[in-house]
């Protein structure tokens, strides 16, 4: 081979190698662009970007609890609260408390309705702690009823507060740290209501040890300064259009909170360190007719009985809240129900023809305990989820999900599903 040809070949190989390494660097850069992690002091910020094309995971049903064709104790006319034990058994409130086998084939009752020892009246949240005890928050009796692994009644823990939360954040057992009980005190009239208590901390015997207050940055972007935001029905009614503060807790004792005016969620650890999850995605913009319908419906609702009531609040924002609910799974994953654009539903009652409502189907956004976006998980066809306050959130444990469903006869049941990524 001549020296000239050798040099040409060498240059060609170098060029090819350069392109290969350059392509590899491009791919590496693209992967790096998907997530970035920055740590400043005790704060770690994890920023993820929603890719243009998503591989959506799906749920597949593997068992049904509370069969609609079964008699007696198998029937679930309503499910005000439920939870799942460490062995897969399902505890369901309503007319006391019943325990279903993991596959739904067996059932036993461990508590009946009432106010006496071992009885419950209005359970709004349940969880199983690290000792295997069932903790049931009984709102009507203002106490937590506790049962051992066999279902035997242990004790009642009295609570001197009546503004307690519903759902997954109602009672959160924290290993070696006791139990968190969620609070929802009224916003102070004429003031911002901050700082406000959001959790009671109980020890292993149910004695109140501490009150946890919302961090100062908790209110950023969701300041309830307008009179329309001062608690009551309006707090719930405004959620589809106006960003409302969200908070919950995880089983490590972390407080998870955020204002959905932006897709940012903070996970405050017991040691004071902070993990901030920033998810970058395009905002959802509600059309003008949706925003005007929101105001019209609210005016009509408040004008019932001949009252002449007109809207005096702020104009509904174009951007829909980025999320409506935060749920921390048993193993630390964060499940976020994002804001979906409202859809028209025909209304046969005058004076308006259509009512715009949030869809009850769609996807959850899922993040790992370190704040990285795992992807969206699609609800199966025919399964709906209502995120509004007072409704039961699904129970998440790794790739297993339990969700309450309702048939055409208003009989409830619980589906256990596995996620296929």
Report the average pLDDT across residues: 82
Number of helices: 3
Lateral strand order in the biggest sheet: 20-21-24-25-3-28-27-26
CATH superfamily of the domain at 65-214: TolB, C-terminal domain
**Which structural class should the secondary elements be placed in?**
mainly beta
Per the principal axes of the C-alpha atoms, what is the gross shape? globular
The overall strand count is 28
CATH architecture name of the domain at 65-214: 6 Propeller
**Beta fraction of the residues?**
35-45%
User: Considering DSSP H and I runs of 4 or more, what fraction of the residues is helical?
Assistant: 10-25%
Q: How far apart are the termini?
A: 55 Å
List keywords for this structure.
421 residues, mainly beta, 12% helix, disordered N terminus, single chain, Neuraminidase
Question: Care to describe what's here?
Answer:
There is one protein chain. The chain is mainly β. The chain has a domain at 65-214: 6 Propeller (Neuraminidase), CATH 2.120.10.30. The chain is built from three helices and 28 strands. Strands 20-21-24-25-3-28-27-26 form an eight-stranded mixed β-sheet, with no helix packed on it. A six-stranded mixed β-sheet has the order 1-2-19-18-17-16. A four-stranded antiparallel β-sheet has the order 4-5-6-7, with no helix packed on it. A hairpin with a 7-residue loop joins strand 22 and strand 23. It is globular. The relative contact order is 0.14. Mean pLDDT is 82; it is low at 1-32.
